From TrEMBL:
InterPro entries: Phage_holin_3_6 (IPR009937). It holds the Pfam family Phage_holin_3_6. The keyword Membrane applies. It comes from the Bacteria. The chain crosses the membrane at residues 57-80, 86-107. Keywords: Membrane, Transmembrane, Transmembrane helix. This is Phage holin family protein.
Amino acid sequence: MADVLNGTPVKPLNEQSTAELVQRASEQLSRLVRDELTLAKAELAEKGKHAGIGAGLFGGAGVLAGYGVGALLATLVIVLDLFLPLWLAALIVTVVLFAVAGVLALLGRSQLRKATPPEPQAAIQNLKADVDEVKHAVKERSRV
């Protein structure tokens, strides 16, 4: 049974002319490059998502740290002014805000680590393997 490509019977490789082989290789290479670019796009989108989440978490940590500084200043004012239990409540709030800021900063760092390196590693490795395979096939074909 003969192979069929795009509705047209395909001759065995050893019976195809050089022009047919070059055309077939060109079509396959174009499809391969398109597929690799699609993979690279998907990989970069995933890394961009992690970078965005990480940056947002760092931003949240910065805002909470700012509120923490404000609460700490309010605590110092209350301590100096009243020396009553109110200052203890303000101090507790300050500690909690800084603790939450620390947790958000750690989560943000984790997300940013997932986004690096920014290159699409899987696509690059696949492309290198494809180039090596084509080189090997060309060498084998030239020996025949």
